[in-house]
Specification:
Elements lengths: L13 H8 L7 H13 L3 H21 L5 E5 L9 H8 L4 E6 L2 H13 L3 E5 L5 H6 L1 H6 L7 E5 L11 H11 L5 E7 L7 H12 L11 H6 L5 E2 L5 E2 L20 E7 L2
Parallel strand pairs: 1-2, 1-4, 2-3, 4-5
Antiparallel strand pairs: 5-8, 6-8, 7-8
Length: about 270
């Protein structure tokens, strides 16, 4: 993986660290070291990353199959790994459109590769906080029909925005732009605010992510607020391991599953 002029292999990247946690190959030693720091603080951190990915797969499959959504915007999509959003939804509907958005240069390189093989999949170099600019991007404007429902994926994105970046305001702007009948899927680091071991672990993990420049654990009420007045699907904002719309949970939960939560909601 030759570094480009925009890629600094001495500085850890969120996307590459996530890839390393999932056992991918598109990362550098500095990214693996960052994951090692987090694993020492929270040994199941790799399992949490996998749980997040498996939740994404369940969510987009449900949107494509049960909700009939055929156009998706996947923000902060990260590096391609097994079962990407387009793999899942286009297996249900080969004509479904998927637009990935990310501002990481390695993700952009892989995004360009996706363009070669998937005629219904596009990649946009953009910042998910620049909502209006993204919507006006030529690729987004051409490929997404804003007169029909859209599936917006914010999987593990908002927890990389500091309070100063106003993630609630960013999500509000996205909600306003989405057409009626659209769905918002969002997962986020969760602070159970138990006043004890788990909340202390959240602070330790935040400290470990400081070298990446971001990573915040927030309360369930705050995460729920990101959905605004959208109609939350059952079972609401829950541990990701509990979000199973088509059957019972597949695996036994552990206390660290409290550290990430999410949900899916529909715009009336």
């Amino acid at each position: 993986m030759p570094p480009s002029s925009r890629i600094d292999p001495t500085i850890p990247s969120i996307a590459r660290a996530y890839d390393a946690a999932l056992g991918g190959k598109d990362n550098y030693e500095v990214d693996r070291q960052m994951v090692d720091v987090l694993v020492r603080a929270c040994p199941p951190v790799k399992a949490i990353a996998r749980e997040n990915r498996e939740w994404l797969i369940r969510v987009v499959r449900w949107m494509a199959r049960e909700a009939g959504i055929d156009q998706f915007i996947d923000c902060g999509s990260g590096l391609p790994t097994q079962e990407n959003t387009h793999d899942v939804v286009q297996r249900v509907n080969p004509d479904a459109t998927v637009v990935y958005v990310d501002n990481d240069p390695i993700c952009q390189a892989h995004g360009a590769a996706l363009l070669e093989d998937h005629h219904r999949t596009w990649f946009v170099d953009g910042d998910l906080t620049e909502v209006e600019q993204l919507v006006a991007h030529p690729t987004v404007a051409e490929q997404i029909d804003w007169d029909r429902p859209v599936g917006l994926i914010q999987c593990a994105t908002a927890h990389h925005l500091s309070d100063e970046q106003q993630p609630g305001e960013v999500m509000r702007r996205w909600r306003e732009i989405l057409p009626s009948g659209s769905y918002l899927a969002l997962s986020h680091f969760h602070d159970p605010e138990d006043g004890g071991e788990l909340s202390a672990l959240c602070r330790t993990l935040e400290s470990g992510l400081a070298d990446l420049g971001c990573g915040w654990w927030r309360a369930r009420d705050t995460i729920t607020g990101f959905f605004g007045d959208f109609e939350l699907l059952d079972p609401g904002v829950v541990r990701l391991c509990d979000w199973w719309p088509n059957g019972p949970r597949g695996n036994e939960a552990s206390h660290v599953d409290e550290l990430i939560a999410g949900g899916v909601a529909r715009k009336p």
